[in-house]
Amino acid sequence: MALSLPQITIRKRLPWLLGNILLYITAASAISPFQNTISHIPVLAVIMPIISNTSGNVAIQAVSVTLRGLGTGEVTHLDTLKVLRKEILAALGTSIVLGITLGILSLIWSPPQERWISIIASFVMIMNVFIAATLGTLLPMNLKRINLEPALISGPFLTTILDTISFLTFLSLIAIVQSSPSIISQFSQTF
């Protein structure tokens, strides 16, 4: 496919990318109910793309490693659990470092009365990185198993799904905590 005619490349890529636009409407729709929350806490607009982009990048790394292994014959679908185990262990370490980093940045960016956001941002980052590595490994293995081209499908599909998960999780947790003043006051006393 690397040396295919441009028309062939377009014909193979375009359906998946058009489908991705339709799928991304879901991710955008996940944000819509939280417009009021975002307008009251503007720092959320800074944190949200960091979480979604980071988890997307983790997924693309896992997809790339998995595709390379499949392409070279280093791994087959029989090795799914071994590859998944390695990616999950790597994701655990990576997610903790990324979660702590985002937590610190969130503390710096947030005004004192909103520093509680850092805990949620850290938690969602850790969770999304873990999910991203898992899906980034399993999706190409399973697509290959059913004779679909994982190199064309995996990246766009995963980034859209992960954006939806990160937006929904982050904003839902923010809304829950924001509606519970006692939680916010306890956190504010700690920091």
Walk me through this protein's architecture:
The protein has about 190 residues and is mostly helical. It has a domain at about 55-180: SLC41 divalent cation transporters, integral membrane domain (Tetracycline Repressor, domain 2). Helix content is about 85%, strand content about 0%. The protein contains seven helices and no strands. It has helices spanning about 5-30, 35-40, 45-70, 80-110, 115-145, 150-180, 180-190. It is globular, with a radius of gyration of 19 Å. The model has no long low-confidence stretch (mean pLDDT about 90).
Record the SSE blueprint.
Elements: H1 6-31, H2 35-40, H3 44-72, H4 80-109, H5 117-145, H6 150-178, H7 181-190
Helix pairs in contact: 1-6, 3-4, 3-5, 3-6, 4-5, 5-6
Helix and strand element order: HHHHHHH
What is the C-level CATH assignment of the domain at 57-178? Mainly Alpha
Going by helix content, strand content and strand pairing, the class is mainly alpha
Radius of gyration: 19 Å
The percent range for helix content is: over 70%
The shape is: globular
> What is the CATH T-level topology of the domain at 57-178?
Tetracycline Repressor, domain 2
Mean pLDDT: 88
Number of strands: 0
What is the beta-strand fraction?
Answer: under 5%
Low-confidence stretches: none
Give the CATH superfamily of the domain at 57-178.
SLC41 divalent cation transporters, integral membrane domain
Q: What CATH architecture label of the domain at 57-178 applies?
A: Orthogonal Bundle
Distance between the termini: 55 Å
What is the count of DSSP helices, taking H or I runs of 4+ residues?
Answer: 7
Instruction: Tell me the major beta sheet.
Output: none
